[in-house]
Amino acid sequence: MRTYVGHQQAVSAHDFVELALGTPVELWLGVEGETDEERAARLDAARDILADNPHLPDDVSRIAAEAIEAYAPELFNVVLLVRPVGRRPVRKGAAA
Questions:
Q1: Who has the most CB within 10 Å: 28, 53, 82, 87?
Q2: Could you give phi then psi for residue 37, rounded to 5 degrees?
Q3: pLDDT tens per residue across span 76-89
Q4: pTM for the full model?
Q5: Which string of DSSP letters, residue by residue, matches 30-93?
């Protein structure tokens, strides 16, 4: 069975991420051994992409959350730790 996103075939998780972002993952994460000049060019290109699509970080966060919810929902099992209102932790050596 083949899977397509738009007109592109996705054969790996890496392909799905790249197609969801619309850019290569390496553009955002970098590559091992890149020179300072390569890094500067990569970051410049990333800034241009973000300037053209300011909603990209929100879209990526939403897609990541949806993927986690679908494939690893146990990661969302979070217990909130609530500090009582009006109480501050006592620091060692602080006057009471």
A1: 28
A2: -65, -45
A3: 787 777 777 776 66
A4: 0.57
A5: --TT--HHHHHHHHHHHHHHHHH-TTHHHHHHHHHHHHHHHH-GGGG------PPTT--PPPTT
